[in-house]
Amino acid sequence: MRWFLKRKRNIFIIYLILSLALLTGCWDNRDIEEVSFNLGIALDQADGDIKLEGEPPVITATFQNLAPKVTISGQAEIDFDNISITGNTISKISTELALLNPGTIISQHLKTIAISENLARHMNLENLLNDFQRNINTRISTNILIAKGNAKSVFEKNLGEKGNAIPALKILRIIDNDDFSLRLLKPATLAIVGDRLASEQSFLLPRVQKKGNEIVLEDAAVISGKTKKMVGLINSEEVNGFRWLVGKKGGGRLNIFNRKNNLIFTIQIFHMSSEIIPHVRGNQISFDVNVYGEGTLIEDWIENADAADNRFLQKLEKEAEQKIVYQMRSVLYKLQKQFRADVVGFGEALRIKYPQTFQKVKQNWDEMFADVPIEVHADLKIRNYGVKIKK
């Protein structure tokens, strides 16, 4: 019996010691006002020719850090600071940042990296983004964009603007509106960009710019898989065509304005898809692209229109299909003849259906893509026309 009581006492002592260890509190805690959360980074080519012989071009990185502060009244206040540092590599710049920034920098919340056009046109993006891809503290879901002019200007704070209007996050909120506009292109993540660059596949990145006090997303930059640099731009109308070609989940509004036929109307697209069909006949490669869409007629300025009349709806569908085909042909012409860059995925479709043929052409695919015949077809159905029928 004594042996049992002694054993029970020993167990109690061990339990008590373990309990004390759990009650020691957060020994490594840090006050929130003593840390900075890095939300965005703008990368620009530095002014002048400040570089050592044999070293890469000088880069200016602007870090947008969330800086929680406590006011005199004890209220929490959210604000941000921009810190610009110049260096030859991202690693060197990060080291300088640690020396300048008061407090610990937490980079796990990085949301946006904006690269200036000038830098993207002259620097290998695989090298530029190498540090971010290797860094275990940088999330691969970070969004990559191209900035018109200085990327730093996109992150600048407007006079009189509230502290919580953080540009790095505001960009993401604008991108979330891609269901309402076919002109918006979602940015590629760090993971996707790294994969495309490593496999030498061309791709698009959305372009962001500052217009007055507003952040605007329009147009898209074409990144060559071969050179790993920006080779040009497609405009917002051509972004529409690109989105139809790839047929990814999403939607937007298709606006038709045909002065000749006196047709003005808008269709809200709620479904879109595409199918790329490769053909190989001997040494000849060609493609058919079939796109399909469904939408709602949300507005029309057509006299004596009756949306309940199938003939009227078919007329609008045909007009919309012609607009879609025009947009797709426009962007394809620029991608093939001007940039020689397959950003749509024709090479991938060829690889899946004709792997042996693709192995023969993959080393020089972008050049071959420039001369490959591509036929595009559109099928659009208006499924709803709202509550107003006859005018």
Automatic annotation (TrEMBL):
It is found in: Membrane. This is Ger(X)C family spore germination protein. One of its GO terms (biological process) is spore germination. Residues 219-386 form the Spore germination GerAC-like C-terminal domain. Belongs to the GerABKC lipoprotein family. Keywords: Germination, Lipoprotein, Membrane, Palmitate, Signal. Pfam families: Spore_GerAC (PF05504), Spore_GerAC_N (PF25198).
